[in-house]
Structures are given as structure tokens and as C-alpha cells.
Amino acid sequence: STGLSAYLSPADPAPKPSPKQPPPRVGPYLLYESCEKEETYRAMHTGTQQQYTCQVLPLRGYLERLAAYDRIDQHENICSLQDVVVRQDNVYVFLPGHHGDMHAYVRSRKHLDEEEAGRLFAQMLGAVTHCHQHGVILRDLKLRRFVFTDKYRTRLALLGLNDSVLLHGNLDDG
Description:
Elements lengths: L4 H4 L16 E2 L2 E6 L5 E6 L5 E8 L3 H10 L11 E4 L3 E7 L5 H8 L4 H20 L2 E3 L7 E3 L7 E3 L5 E3 L8
Pfam families: Pkinase
GO molecular function: ATP binding; mitogen-activated protein kinase kinase binding; protein kinase activity
GO cellular component, one term: nucleus
């Protein structure tokens, strides 16, 4: 007799969990390429062929994570929210498409002349200043979070406000 244990062990080993992939299609959007940042993908609207950046957020607490967008008026150096698709497992936040980030640009160029560096830094500073003036404090601020909005790589914008803290109370104390 083989005993009871022969009946209790699984016939096949349990499958190894694979990294969770988002569905290839979310509403009218096709997610087609993973970006450098975790849970960020390139996307295309299937009706218009317009390019987007899609950030995948957990369903839990997503309203709080997106609240900063309600605080910020439109600003040329901050990517505005284009669309949000809520699914049962995640929230898919669609921002404008871009032409690479500042971190990759600096690494590839190795050296920026003072005029170009000053012009790009002024745009980053403008985005951060605008956020602070509206009570939005950015966490984990990195060059990677600034993306080029034009193919000539002259205009920068902050990509994503979902990792920020909102100040409450009188914002005119400064």
C-alpha cells in the first residue's frame, strides 16, 4: 500500500508565477511596449493612432494618487491627464506620448553645453515650482520623470503626478 500521501500530492508541480502583464488592450488603447519605468507602457489609441504613455496603478487608493491632477492647472511643463480606464484589477492612466526621458538623454549625450543645460533645467524648475505653488509636493524626483514632448528634444514635461503629496490648508504661507 502506498498510503494516503500518494493521493494528497499534486500530479504536476505548481506552475511558477510569471510577472503580471497588463492586458494588451485596455478600452480603445493597445499597450504594446514596456517602458523603462515599472508599470509604464507605450500605448496607442486604436481609433486615432495617437501615441500615449500608460501608467498602471493598483485599484486600491487610486483616487488619492490621482488627486494632484485636480490641483494643477494646465502647464506646458507638466503632462496632463488624457484618459483613465478603471478595470476590476488596476487603473490605467493615459498621458501624452513622449520622445524619451531626460535621464537617457543625458547618458547618451554625456555632456550638455551650458546653454542647453540651462534651458532644460529652467523647464524642469518651472514644472516643480508650479506644483509647489499649487500644494503638490513631488516625491522621488529624478531626471527620468521628465520627458521630451517634441521630437527635437527641446521641450520637457513632468510625466506623472501620482507619486506626490498634497498639502492642505493655507498655501500662501511662503
